[in-house]
Amino acid sequence: MWPASETGIVFVAIAPFVAAILAPFLFRIAGRFTGWLLALVPAAIFLFLLGFAETVIGGGTIAMSMNWIPAYDINLSFFIDGLSLVFALTISGIGALIILYSGAYLAGHKHQGRFLGFMLAFMGAMLGLVLADSLLALFLFWELTSVTSFLLIGFDHARQAARRGAIQALVITNIGGMCLLAGAILVQQLSGSWEMSALRGMGDLLRDHALYGLVLFCFLGAAFTKSAQFPLHFWLPNAMEAPTPVSAFLHSATMVQAGVYLLARMSPVLGGTEAWTSILVIFGGLTLIWGALGALKQTDLKQILAQTTIASLGLLVLLIGLGSTYSIAAAIVYFVAHAFYKAGLFMVAGAVDHETGTREITGLGGLAEKMPATFIAAAMAALSMVGLPLTIGYFAKEEMYLGLMNGDWTSLVVIVVLIAGNAMLAGVALIVAIRPFLGTLVPTPRTPHEAPLAMLAGPVLVGAAGLVAGVLPDWLGHDVLVPAASAILQRPVESHLTLALDVTGLLLWLSVLTWALGVLVYRQADTIRTLLRRFDAWLGWTADNVFDACMFGLIRFSGAVTRALHHGKLELYLVLVFLTLAVALFGPMLAWGGLDWMVPKADLGDWSQRLVLPALQPYEWGVIVMAIAGLLAVLAAPTRLIAILSMGVQGTALALIFLLFGAPDLAFTQLMVEVLSVVILTFLMTRLRLDDRDPRPFEDWARDGTLAIVCGVGVSLLLMLVLNGTLDTRLSDLFTATSVPIAHGHNIVNVILVDYRGFDTLGEISVVMGAGMAILALLRRQRKKATEKPAPRRRTRKAGA
Predict the structure, then answer these.
(1) What span, in angstroms and rounded, lies between the C-alpha atoms of 569 and 209?
(2) What's the protein's topology in the membrane (predicted)?
């Protein structure tokens, strides 16, 4: 550990992404040692962040900001307090162990470097998310977690299940991302600030506002999708198609905890209302029970643990919703406990699968003899998950119950839900720790043996950390609980964690009841699984089926829309374009009274006084006559070539108009465009040898002629109305005033095209380039046909020859 500085937060945000870029190249050099080397990056981040611990424990905060989009007063800001530091240390510490674990788990895989790069980017996105102070930066990292998780879940892209799981996770979490963006913009508009640290004192402003319900909906939508709350939980079990290191990291300290972090961070701003408490407690409780029951239905170790993650996330949301000092303290301690035991158990499941070839608990048993270190790691993690004394899980459970000892009926309902959920989770912990390892050794697809050191280091260390934290309650309370809970509650919090047991108090007996029910669940697990599966068969559908139906309907609808709009008929495309132009021209004029001049009114005078045609010189009339002659020539042209040349007459007339009215640069541009257009089109037509003229039925002629007249009249009317109105010179004055000092150009027209309308000009150039490429393709195709010689005919002998 070394002294940390505010500017070093940039290192924390950038280092994982730099390492992610270098990971594939490092893999080519270091080979099987790549995991060990890359694990140094999160380890260094962990040690660096520890340098802030003294400041944060003392009640201080660390802030760092830099200009991001100065024109809109948007900064890229980071903020470290007790809450963000606990999350960041958990992410980087467990991340170091999982990167090390990944190197051994995927040893020999040809894409190991790419996988480690995705993992590091995933970790960097989550670190940026919990350290960000700006809501926009939070949204940016929030979406990066979705993208990187998509890459990790679909890493084995050859399997359809992996692709489906990745797409499902991306779709659901991106819906939440859009909710987060909408909520962030609403909060900024209501409060005037993007920084969450500045919002802490504006809770009353937001809670009392008429749009509070909409803001709450947006943030809850973001949190519920990311943290897999019922009924949006179904994507998380399907994410188990990812390699086990991804599951261990995603479920313990990263993506799914992002929603929990968001709720905790926004609790001082949006919390404390009846809507907040009711929604979080109800949906959190439902998710807790649903996930625990879902875990009891499974026999695959990863699926069992995935379902318990859903339950644990529901438990965390419920605790945050309660909002009391005890419940927030319980949420902080339970987050750390869950990160330790869930990372350890997932790595144990991966080790079992890696060394035996199966994850089915019905096909496992007696592995403790062959994999003793793995069994010890599983046992330590399971003890914390059960919540036995001398583990960190015990203090989390005690804090949950302690905050609900006030005796009112709502607290009784909540405590019943918590006891039921914790009991089922305890039963699942016993299943995971006992069924695969104890009893008679069961034959497996591979001969079981102990996992390599890199795969054992992670589960053993996090399991031991759960025990160490459990025997050091003073450290746990003072250095972890107090800073994080104080950051959420915005007031000083005191720790009361102690190893002393009150054997006469109700609190201990609630824990004993939880453990007893957990043992009962373990003993009746097979019966419970059978009943739950029968219920699923009777129900006949799941949220997963609903998602598939919605996606299928969306694809069908998109296909129908595409076939209707992109039918491939250029003629109809042009009709639709000009029809839209006509509506765009006449619609606003009719809606806003732009055509009132056509109706004479006594108070407005004759229309001719309001729409005055300019006085033209004879030579100017000559140019107009020239344009009309070109138009008539186009209409009467017997061939396409003559029509193209006649269009050049109109373009030349337009160039002359620009020249006569003081715009020589535009005249020159128009003239060059016309010359090039005529030359290129003429060259194209002669080379393609197209028909002289297409036959046009009367209905097509009438339709196109009517559209042309309507659009021409509309453009003319609009221009005349604009020219007879009051000229607003603010934009031209801006160009004149800023052309030299800002754009450093004396030619205002050039400055407008290159600087002020740079993207517009780029788009025009892109269109011309695209048209040129299409023309070149047509010419090459025609040349290829011309050079191809017909195959010689084979001579056949006549019969009897």
Answers:
(1) 52
(2) Multi-pass membrane protein
Cα gap 261→265, rounded to integer Å? 6
Contacts of 264 (CB under 8 A, 6+ apart): 83, 320, 328, 331, 488
Q: How buried is 213 (Cβ within 10 angstroms: 0-12 exposed, 13-18 middle, 19+ buried)?
A: exposed
pLDDT tens across 693-738, in order? 666 778 888 888 899 899 988 888 888 777 777 778 888 888 888 8
Distance CA(149)–CA(122), nearest Å, equals: 7
Burial track 39-72 (b if 16+ CB lie within 10 A, e otherwise): bebbbbbbbbbbebbebbeeeebbebeeebeeee
Which H or E run includes 524?
A: none
For the chain, residues classed under CATH 1.20.120 are 570-725
Do 306 and 289 form a contact (C-beta atoms < 8 A)?
Answer: no
DSSP, res 753: I
Regarding the domain delimited by 570-725, which CATH topology (the fold level of the hierarchy) does it fall under?
Answer: Four Helix Bundle (Hemerythrin (Met), subunit A) (1.20.120)
Nearest-angstrom CA–CA distance, 38 and 636: 75
Mean pLDDT of the chain: 85
SS3 80: strand
Within 10 Å of residue 14's Cβ, how many Cβ atoms? 12
Listed in sequence order, the residues at least 6 apart from 104 whose beta carbon sits closer than 8 Å to its beta carbon are 35, 451, 452, 453, 454, 455
Residue 601: strand, helix, or coil: strand
**Token reading at 113:** 């470097």
